[in-house]
Amino acid sequence: MTLVGCFVTPHPAIIVPEVGQEHISEVRSTVDAMLEAGEHAAALAPETIVLLSPHASIAGYRMGISPARAYKGSLAYFRAPHVRLECEGDQVLAQAILDEATQHGVPAVATTSPAEVVDLDWGALVPLLYLTGAMQKPCALVLLSFSGLSIEEHVRFGELAGRAMCEASKRVLYVASGDLSHRLMPGAPAGFDPKGAEFDNEIVESFAAGDWDRLLGIRSSLVAAAGECGYRSLAVLSGVVAAAEAGGAATSNRVLSYEGPFGVGYLVGEVEVSQTSQG
After folding, report:
1. Contacts of 129 by beta carbon, 8 Å cutoff, 6+ apart
2. What is the pLDDT of residue 275?
3. What percent helix, strand, coil does the chain show, rounded to 5?
4. Which of 14, 45, 91, 231 has the most beta carbons within 10 angstroms of its beta carbon?
5. d(CA 202, CA 6)
6. Within a 13 Å sphere around the CA of 65, how many CA atoms are in the beta-carbon half?
């Protein structure tokens, strides 16, 4: 088996109807795109989801991989305790990713004990609610976290993690969770900066074109001005895609939606992965 597809998702709790309630119409494009992503994910029939959340436990200048035996979470913090999700951990794939990284010189660490049941943060829980909602069978999970390492090291980690996914004995789906600029308008969560929209435009255009060099080449000053939490997730994704292509797969990108109604950019995208040779 192998990597069957990838998604880019935002993670605001407000896109979950039980949280957003009367405001759900203001994020309708994102909600509809996430529902579409969930349908596509179900059609891919993954057995394991590997997800990088910007809000998972960060281990300084080391990439984080959780080998937990199980995960659970709810949106109780957002006054929706009845919205819950539980899943098993894929400890074999988690260890394979950790081994690939450490054996090839990318600093990485297990962020949890194998015996733990880990609480899911909203950066993981919100995408998983949508992506697993239409699945007929439960899916295991590997939770990743980014670090203070360079963008280049995040890309390299993605290549190594992607190699482990492509060599896995299961069907694997990769998810890059992250919101774009938090500075799109006055009153936005991180304040306003006109460069926020410039950053988001660069991300959306380069992703849509499948131009990873352009995406990774965004100047660091623009990234900093944007006040984002998704750029490193996308950097890792670019490495995962590169690994799939190196293994003989063909990939193509699609933007399902983009909007920023509350001053934060929400991108929903898909990387379709087609196996053109035996992997």
Report:
1. 16, 83, 85
2. 83
3. 40, 25, 30
4. 231
5. 20
6. 25
